[in-house]
Amino acid sequence: MKATPLSNRLSRFFLVAEIIFLFVPGLSHAAQASRNPPAEGEKDILLFTNGEKLIGRLQRSTGDSVVFHSDMAGDITVTWSKIKELRSSQRFAVVEKGVRLRTDESDAKIPQGTISMADGHVRVDTTPDAAPLTLPLSNTADVIDEATFARVVLHRPAWYKNWKGSATVGLSIVNATQQSQNYTSSVNFIRDVPGENWMSPESRTILTFSSAYGELSQPDTPTLKTSIFQARGERDRYISPRLYLFAGAQFDHDYSQGLDLQQTYGGGLGWSTIKSDNEQLDLRAALAYESQRFFLSSQDQHLVSSVFSEAYSRKFPNKITLHQDFSITPSWSNSSALSTTGDLLLTIPIIKRISFTVGTADTFLNNPSPGFRKNSFQFTSGITYSVR
Questions:
Q1: Parallel, antiparallel or unpaired: strands 112-118 and 121-125
Q2: Do 133 and 166 have their domain in common?
Q3: Alpha helix stretches (DSSP H) within 39-160
Q4: Which domain holds residue 64?
Q5: Is the backbone peptide bond immediately before 5 cis, with ω within 30 degrees of 0?
Q6: How far apart are CA 252 and CA 10, in angstroms?
Q7: Which secondary structure element, helix H or strand E, spans residue 28, and what is its range?
C-alpha cells in the first residue's frame, strides 16, 4: 500500500522542523553564555562553623542550600546551618518566604543590595545612605543575583529563550542476503516561563516529534516497510502553582496500522500532583476533536473524544532521568474508536551534553484497517544531545 500525499507532505514538514530544532541547542547555549558573564571585583568570603574559610563567589541560595564557587574547590553546596559568616560585595535580591513573583512585575517589595550573613540573620545594604535591612535567616527563601532577578522579574523573556530539551538519533543497517535499514529520531523541547523555581509558574510550551522508519528487502520477496511518526504541541497557562489550562494538537501516522493520518485538537485542565526539583507527575483531562484518515478511505471518520493522560518525570543520581507518559482516548461519537498510547524513556549521560537513550513506545488502535494488528510496539535506542 502507498501512503497518501498528505502524510508524505507532513513527514517532510516535520523532518525539516526537526532539523531546525537541532540548531536550537547551540543558540540556547550561546544566549546562556552571553547573559552570564564572568564576575569581577572583590572576592566573597564564606566562614564555616568549624573555622574553615572559602574565598570565591556566592552563586545563589534556595531554601536551606547555598551554592558557593570556591577559587580552589569549584562549586560547593552547603546548608546555612554550617555557615558561621558570609560576606559578599555583589548585589543580590533577597526573596522572603511566602513571596511569589511573576514576570513584568515591580521589584519594589524585594530588598536588593550587597549582603552579609551572621548570627542567623541576613543583612542587606541597599544603598550607602540608607539604613541596612536585617532579615531572619529562617524567613529567607531565596537569594538571587541582581542581574538574574532583573532579567526574569522585570522583563518577560523573548520567545526564543528558556528552551530546554533534547534531540535523539538512532541507526541500524544490515547489508547481506537480506538488506535492512532502520532509522529513529526524536526531538523534545519544553519552555517554562519564567523558568525559575522561586517564581510563580505562568506558562509552559511543549513541542515533541518522534519517527521510526525502516525497510527490509531480500531477493524475490516484496519489500517490507515501517513508517511511524508522531508530532505534538501543547500550550499550558497556569491559574495556580499546580493547576493549569492547556490546549494542544497531535498528529499521528502509522503504516503498521493502516493509519494515514490522525489529527487531534483539544484542550482541558491539568494538575501537577507531584512537583519538586527531582520529580513531577501531571494528570490531564481534555475534550477533543479527532479526524482519522486511513489507507482504506471508507474507514475515515470524524470523532468527538475525551483524552485522559498522565506524565511522570524523575531525576536520579548521576543525572540519569526517566520519563513516562500514558494517554487513553475514548470516543463519545463512536464507542469502538478507542486508542491509547504510552512510552517510557531512560536517559543515561555519557559526557557533558551527550547521553545514551533507551525507550519503548506502544500504540493501540481499536479500529485499524482490515489485515492490520491493533497494537504497534517500538523499542528504540540512540545518542541524545541535551539542552539545559
A1: antiparallel
A2: no
A3: 146-153
A4: 40-153
A5: no
A6: 10
A7: helix 24-35
CA distance 172 to 267: 38
Report the DSSP pairing between strands 259-275 and 179-193.
unpaired
Residues 241, 222 share a domain: yes
At 206, give phi and psi (nearest 5°): -125, 130
Helix (H) or strand (E) holding 31: helix 24-35
355 shares its domain with 219: yes
Residue 132: inside a domain: yes
Q: Last residue of some domain: 126, 153, 180?
A: 153
Tell whether 89 and 166 lie within a shared domain: no
* 125 and 249 fall within a common domain: no
Last residue of a domain, one of 127, 153, 179: 153
Is residue 176 located within the same domain as residue 129?
A: no
Q: Please tell me whether residues 291 and 371 are part of one structural domain.
A: yes
Chunked in runs of 10, what are the mean pLDDT values of the chain (388 residues)?
50 51 44 42 85 91 88 88 90 85 72 88 84 86 87 80 91 86 93 84 94 88 87 95 95 91 96 91 96 92 96 93 95 92 94 93 91 89 89
68 is written with which cell numbers? 558557593
Same-domain status, 52 and 20:
no
Q: State the residue for C-alpha cell 500514558.
A: 326
CATH number at residue 338: 2.40.160.40
Grid look-up 507532505 returns 9
The count of structural domains within the chain is 2
Tell me if 362 sits within 8 A of 328, measured CB to CB. Answer: no
Q: What are phi and psi of 337, to 5 degrees?
A: -90, 70
Close Cβ partners of 119 (under 8 Å, ≥ 6 residues apart): none
**H-run or E-run covering 265:** strand 259-275
Q: How many helices (H) and strands (E) does the chain have?
A: 3, 21
Beta-bridge partner residues of 180: 174, 216
Burial tier of 307 (Cβ tally within 10 Å: 0-12, 13-18, 19+): buried
Residues 347, 318 contacting (CB under 8 angstroms): no
